[in-house]
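note to self: dont lose this again. the chain is below, predicted strucutre after it. 366 aa total, dont forget to put it in the shared folder this time
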Amino acid sequence: KTGTSGAADAAGEAPTGGNSSGEGDAAESADAGEDKKPTKTPGGRNKRNNTSRKPKGPKMSNANKKKQGGVPQYPDYAALLPQTALATTVQAWIDDGMPSFDVGGLVVGSTPATAQLWMKSTGIFAGKPFFDAVFRSVGCQVKWTNLARNEGRMITANGSDKKVLLATVTGPCNQILRGERTALCALSRCSGVATESRAAVDLAKKLGWKGLVAGTRKTTPGFRIVEKYGLLVGGAATHRLDLSQMVMLKDNHVWSAGSIEGAVKLARKAAGFSQKIEVECRNLDEAMEAAGAGADVVMLDNYEPAKLKEDAKAIKDKFPHVIIEASGGITDEAMGDYLSEHVDVVSQGKLTQGYHCLDYSLKIKR
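---
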């Protein structure tokens, strides 16, 4: 299920950690699946009791049932994160927020305290591992409610009157407040990216398209890991994560190298077989040159919808193995004009550049 009201689930709490499933699991009876002893029929023949059943496996959580093919509804994307690098990144955030004295921390002192995390606007819940990492770095503990057990849920909330409890944070009062704003910023922004991504992905599916909606490398410096993570939780593709993951040859590369063919062939010498090469193209001639030189992905950039579909078909007819990406100013309102059976990927910079942050608050319990 994707639409979930927060009120019913907010009571139970789950310990900090990955997106474990299991809520609502039912225990099997101790003798489930055991055969009863045969009974005699009037004719003297043995007859097995017809109540014997094949043993059942454990029931899956209603909140994380696997779809066909074994993919969970809410994958535990936190398992992807490089923990050492994440700890370093988070510590840099903390240091940036407190480069010198914390007078407010002096005022509240280090008395043990408890704070509650509230979600106050409707959207996709995402960013849990970053919230955890911030408070871990300042020596506090986070306990999540059952509703927040899985990232990727659409949670309905509306301001202070209909806010939803997602977690409690315990630790020294000054340390909770030192991590507060940093943790909330990561959570609200990651959830914003996930919400924007889910809307675009759902729109493409509603239009019957089977390709991928992707982000771009237009991310916030120092915050890329959060925004790319939000894309995944929202259901979009991340596109390349950085300069080292996939080769993308844009107009500046081609102009500097002298030609598309020369740029692709030199890139292939370094990339070998393990990296894809993508070329940004402005017209069909450039796209054909790129595909002919060995590019794996051709980006048709800043096209008009009708011309995009025409050129995508021409490329696929000659190079059916080449991936076609459409990019450049494709809004949700106009997306349907660009979608085609010959287009494999639609990328949108707005997913990590123009997203709205969700509203969360962290309040110390009196």
